[in-house]
Design a protein that fits this description.
- This protein is an all-alpha fold.
- It has 3 domains: 74 residues, 434 Repressor (Amino-terminal Domain), CATH 1.10.260; 156 residues, no CATH class; 108 residues, Serine Threonine Protein Phosphatase 5, Tetratricopeptide repeat, CATH 1.25.40.10.
- Helix content is 69%, strand content 1%.
- The chain has a two-stranded antiparallel sheet.
- Helix 2 packs across helix 4, helix 14 packs antiparallel against helix 15 and helix 19 packs antiparallel against helix 20.
- It is elongated and about 80 Å long.
- The N and C termini lie far apart (54 Å).
C-alpha cells in the first residue's frame, strides 16, 4: 500500500528550524533520558516519517514533546500527523504471514500490555485462536528469512543479553511466582527487545534474535497464565510460537505448543489440549528432543484422563516413559525443568483425575524428589500429593502435606497456587468436621 506523505510533520520541522539529523539526535537524547536505550534514529528515519511511515510508540509522543519545547506551545502527536493508532481487539491472536507483519503485531502487543490496556487484561481464552495457531505452525513454509535494515545494528551480543535476561527472570518466576516480575519482563520486551526486532541484521542473526525473543515472550505468557490472565497469556504464547517459526526452531515451537496444551487443560478444554499436545509431538519428533516428546505425550495422557479414557491415558503414559528414557545430555536448556520429578507429577495428575488413589499417591510422593529452585512447582506437587491422600481417605496425611504447601505459598504471587489450594479445600470439604481439616480450611486459600 502506498503511504501518504506527512505534511504536518514537515511543516513543524521547518517552523522549528531543525535539520533532519538534528531532530533525530534530539529524539535519541530524549529517549535515553527516559530510559529508552534502544533508540538509534538518524536523518533517513525522519525522511521516512515525512514520507508517511509512522514510527512505533512512544516516538510520536517524544517528537511532540521536542516540538513543544522548541516552539514554546503545546504540540500533540495528532498535530504532527501521528495520531494514536487504534488497537484491534484481537491483537496477538493472529499467527502472521510475514516477518514484518509479525514484528508489528508482537511489538504492538508488548506496547499495549505495558500500557495496561483493559481489553487485554480482561480478554478470555479463545479455542479458535489456538486452533488457528496449530494449523499455521504445521503448514507455514520453512524458507522464511528474517532480516531487517533498520537504524540500529544488531549482533550476537544483543541476542546473548536477551537470553541472559530470560534465564534470570525465569529463576525469579520459579521462586516467587509470575506476579512478582511479569511487569519488568514486559517492559524489557517493549523497550529492550522491540527496538532490536526493528534493527538491522541478516538472516542468521535474525533467526537467533527471533529465537531469543520467542523464549522471553513465552515466559511473559507463562507468567500471565500463572496470574490466570488467560486471554493475555494465550496471545503471548501464539506470538511466541510465531517467533519460534521465524527462528526455524521446531523444538522451541514444540515447547510453546506444550505450554499452550497445559493452559488449555487447566482452563477446562481437554479436547483442545489434546490437539495442542499432538501438535507438540509433531514438533518434538522434528526436533529430535526426546524430553520434549515425553512432555507432549504426558500432556496427551492428562487430556485423556480428563476425558475419562483410562486406556488411552495408559498408552500415552507408556509413550512418555519410553521417550523420557531416550533423552540425551545435549538437549536445550529450556527443557531442563522436565526431569523425573516433573514426569512423576504428570503421572500423579493423571491417576488422581482417573480416581486411582494408590498410584496417584506413589507418583506424587516421587514428584517431591525435585530441584529445590522450583518453589512454585514444589507447592503444586505438595497440593497434588495432599489431594491424592484425600482420594484415599487419608485425611491426616493430607492435612500435614497441605500445611507444607501453605507455608511455601506464602512467598508466592501466583493465582494458580491459590486455585490449587482452593481445589484441595474443596476435596477436603466432606471432612470439614474433623479438627485437622477445620484447621486447614480456616487457614484457607493463600
Amino acid at each position: 500500500m502506498r503511504r501518504e506523505p506527512n505534511p504536518l510533520l514537515h511543516r513543524h520541522i521547518a517552523e522549528a528550524g531543525l535539520s533532519h539529523k538534528g531532530l533525530a539526535r534530539r529524539l535519541n537524547d530524549l529517549g535515553q533520558a527516559r530510559g529508552l536505550l534502544g533508540l538509534r534514529y538518524d536523518h533517513s528515519s525522519v525522511l521516512r516519517w515525512i514520507s508517511g511511515q509512522r514510527p512505533r510508540d512512544p516516538v510520536p509522543g517524544l517528537l511532540a514533546e521536542i516540538f513543544s519545547l522548541r516552539l514554546g506551545r503545546p504540540v500533540c502527536a495528532e498535530d504532527i500527523g501521528m495520531p494514536e493508532s487504534a488497537v484491534p481487539l484481537d491483537l496477538g491472536q493472529e499467527f502472521s504471514h510475514s516477518w514484518q507483519e509479525g514484528v508489528r503485531i508482537v511489538t504492538a502487543l508488548w506496547r499495549a500490555d505495558v500500557a495496561r490496556r483493559r481489553f487485554l487484561i480482561d480478554s478470555t481464552f479463545a479455542v479458535g485462536a489456538g486452533s488457528a495457531g496449530i494449523v499455521r505452525w504445521l503448514t507455514f513454509p520453512g524458507e522464511e528469512r528474517p532480516a531487517e535494515s533498520g537504524p540500529r545494528r544488531v549482533g550476537a551480543s544483543d541476542v546473548a543479553a536477551i537470553r541472559e535476561v530470560t534465564r534470570s527472570f525465569g529463576e525469579l518466576d520459579n521462586r516467587f511466582g509470575g506476579g512478582r516480575v511479569r511487569a519488568a519482563v514486559v517492559k524489557y520486551l517493549d523497550t529492550g527487545v522491540a527496538p532490536l526486532l526493528s534493527g538491522s541484521y541478516g538472516e542468521a542473526t535474525g533467526r537467533s534474535l527471533a529465537g531469543a525473543a520467542a523464549e522471553l515472550t513465552r515466559l511473559a505468557g507463562w507468567m500471565a497464565y500463572d496470574l490466570e490472565q488467560h486471554g493475555l497469556a494465550q496471545r503471548y504464547l501464539i506470538q511466541a510460537l510465531r517467533l519460534a517459526r521465524r527462528a526455524g526452531d521446531d523444538g522451541l515451537g514444540g515447547e510453546i505448543l506444550a505450554g499452550m496444551s497445559h493452559q488449555a487443560l487447566y482452563v477446562g478444554h481437554p479436547r483442545h489440549g489434546l490437539d495442542l499436545a499432538r501438535a507438540a509431538q509433531v514438533a518434538a519428533r522434528a526436533s529430535g528432543v526426546a524430553t520434549l516428546q515425553s512432555e507432549a505425550y504426558a500432556l496427551e495422557a492428562h487430556a485423556h484422563a480428563l476425558l475419562a479414557d483410562p486406556a488411552a491415558c495408559a498408552t500415552a503414559l507408556h509413550a512418555a516413559e519410553r521417550s523420557f528414557d531416550r533423552r540425551t545430555p545435549d538437549e536445550p536448556e529450556w527443557i531442563g525443568y522436565f526431569d523425573e520429578a516433573y514426569l512423576s507429577a504428570k503421572f500423579a495428575q493423571c491417576f488422581r483425575d482417573l480416581g486411582e488413589g494408590p498410584h496417584a499417591v506413589r507418583h506424587a510422593t516421587r514428584s517431591l524428589e525435585m530441584d529445590g529452585r522450583y518453589v512454585r512447582g514444589r507447592m503444586f506437587n505438595l497440593t497434588l500429593l495432599a489431594s491424592a491422600h484425600v482420594l484415599e481417605g487419608e485425611v491426616e496425611q493430607a492435612c500435614a502435606v497441605a500445611g507444607e504447601a501453605m507455608t511455601l505459598a506464602e512467598g508466592l504471587e501466583s493465582a494458580r497456587t491459590r486455585s490449587s489450594f482452593a481445589d484441595l479445600c474443596r476435596r477436603l470439604g466432606p471432612y470439614e468436621r474433623e479438627p485437622v481439616v477445620a484447621a486447614v480450611l480456616d487457614r484457607g486459600p493463600v
